[in-house]
Amino acid sequence: MSSTKTKILAITGSTRKNSCNFKILTYISKHFQSEFEVEIFEDLASLPHFNPDLDIENPPKEIASFRNKIKDADGVIICTPEYVFSLPGSLKNALEWCVSTTIFSNKKAGLITASASGEMGHEQLLLVMKTLEANFDDKTQLLIQGIRGKVNAEGEIIDSGTAEALQNFTKNLENRFL
Questions:
Q1: CB atoms < 10 A from the CB of 94, how many?
Q2: What is d(CA 160, CA 177) in angstroms, rounded to the nearest whole number?
Q3: Residue 56: φ, ψ to 5°
Q4: DSSP, res 135
Q5: Which sign, positive or negative, has the C-alpha torsion 34, 103, 142, 155?
Q6: Which residues contact 66 (CB under 8 A, 6 or more apart)?
Q7: Could you tell me which residues are beta bridge partners of residue 145?
Q8: Could you tell me if 79 and 21 are in contact, meaning their C-beta atoms sit under 8 angstroms apart?
Q9: Tell me, what DSSP letter sits at residue 95?
Q10: Sign of the dihedral defined by the CA atoms of residues 174, 14, 63, 53, in that order
């Protein structure tokens, strides 16, 4: 691998400040900073509602900026909770703005669902990202159930199995760039 770090755009699927998903992305950015230069995108709440009529030639400036961040990154990590057995609406909205583009086509991606259960939300995340043609596999996707008991208020992973799973996930993602 070259001396330049792999640029990762990390998208938190929660609009909650200091959510467990944000804490996981912060953990990855701190513990794997020798491998990755991570920018955490926290502005899902500021993106306008998806409207195909606005996506024809000049999308809203927030959308153009969001798309450029994805385009300029070597890879993307999404870490999201599950809301009502689905993806959070704000994350789904952001991803819908990308459907008419090819910015996710063959973009290396790591996908994490961290929630109480998360199974259905994770399934939907995988389906949406396959539809967008993101490049991920079984080793670069992770479901973390019962997340609230595995991360403390300071953002430390207090469950050894989760810490190990995140280490393996990150190493597998890094290997995709080699």
A1: 24
A2: 26
A3: -75, -60
A4: B
A5: positive
A6: 41, 43, 47, 94, 97
A7: 115
A8: yes
A9: H
A10: positive
Written as tens digits, the pLDDT of the chain (178 aa) is 445 889 999 999 999 988 999 999 999 999 999 989 999 999 999 999 999 999 878 899 999 999 999 999 999 999 999 999 999 999 999 999 999 999 999 999 999 999 999 999 999 999 999 999 999 999 999 999 999 999 999 999 999 999 999 999 999 999 999 8
Contacts of 156 (CB under 8 A, 6+ apart): 27
**Three-class DSSP category at 113:** strand
List of domains in the chain: 6-175 (3.40.50.360)
The tokens for 67 are 């798309």
Q: Compute the distance between CA of residue 171 and CA of residue 70 in angstroms, rounded to an integer.
A: 21
